[in-house]
Amino acid sequence: MHGPTRRAGSVASVRRIKNVSRLAKTVMERTNHVMIVGDGARRFGVAEGFEEMNLLTEHSRKIWLAWKPKRVLTGGPARTARNGKSMLRRCSITMREKIAYAMRVHHMPANWHDQLAWR
Question: Measured over all CA atoms, what is the biggest interatomic distance in the chain, rounded to whole angstroms?
């Protein structure tokens, strides 16, 4: 956002463009739009001279490959199982595992999570 002129520019869900902050500034400077999203933002960036590139490094690819099977199994809060029951319970198990890990790493007291609403 440019304070004196009160202009703003932003992008969201942009793929294959490395410097999205510069792209957002270009949106502010060269268009009347406040936000451009998705493939339209990518096409705008390419038209403005931004280079398209593969942003997935080998390290992040390995992390993603390790994460992917877990995500398929746990689903998400909005997904439902084939029998119609919510998969939120499965997702909560994963959340509990994350909390247990955070407690080990950050040396948190064992009973702090009793006050959480999702329990």
Answer: 57
Task: Provide the residue type at 17 as one letter.
Answer: I
Specify the pTM: 0.54
What is the Cα–Cα distance from 86 to 77, expressed in whole angstroms? 8
DSSP lists the bridge partners of residue 11 as 36
The rounded distance, in Å, linking the Cα atoms of 82 and 32 is 46
Class of residue 2 by CB neighbours under 10 A (exposed 0-12, middle 13-18, buried 19+): exposed
Q: Tens digits of per-residue pLDDT, 62-89?
A: 888 887 776 655 555 444 445 444 444 4
Q: How far apart are CA 107 and CA 112, in angstroms?
A: 11
Query: Rg of the chain's alpha carbons, rounded to an integer?
Result: 21
